[in-house]
Automatic annotation (TrEMBL):
SUPFAM superfamilies attached to this UniProt entry: Bet v1-like (SSF55961)
UniProt domain Bet v I/Major latex protein: residue ranges: 2-111
GO biological process: defense response
InterPro entries, per the entry: Bet_v_I/MLP, MLP-like_ligand-binding, START-like_dom_sf
Listed name of the protein: Bet v I/Major latex protein domain-containing protein
């Protein structure tokens, strides 16, 4: 297994892009590298015992764009880059799953 890796994906949400971006950007307590409210993009680094015990770096970039059909809803595009401290460590899919679930739950909570 390589020490460096990345993963990316996208999914649709029901919330308007500005409302969703403001909600999750205000809620995240990780270290921000870049916040671009104009582009609705956040780049952050995750750290802490569970992350730093296995990964030298873990960086996530999240961008929210309005739906192309001009209706309600938006598209979330995410990219994760990481560097493991050893070759025998698994790729951080569990962290990515938590991130995606958090973003989807944020959307659900905004549409209750």
């Amino acid at each position: 297994m390589a020490l460096h890796g990345d993963s990316s994906g996208e999914f649709d949400i029901k919330s308007p892009a500005d409302k969703f971006f403001t909600s999750f950007a205000d809620d995240i307590s990780s270290t921000f590298h870049i916040i671009s409210k104009e582009k609705r993009t956040v780049t952050l680094s995750l750290s802490g015992n569970l992350v730093s015990d296995s990964y030298k770096t873990f960086k996530a970039t999240i961008t929210v764009t309005p739906a192309e059909d001009e209706g309600n809803g938006s598209r979330v595009v995410w990219t994760v880059e990481f560097e493991k401290i050893r070759h025998d460590i698994e790729d951080p899919m569990w962290i990515i799953d938590i991130l995606i679930n958090y973003l989807k739950e944020t959307d659900e909570n905004l549409n209750i």
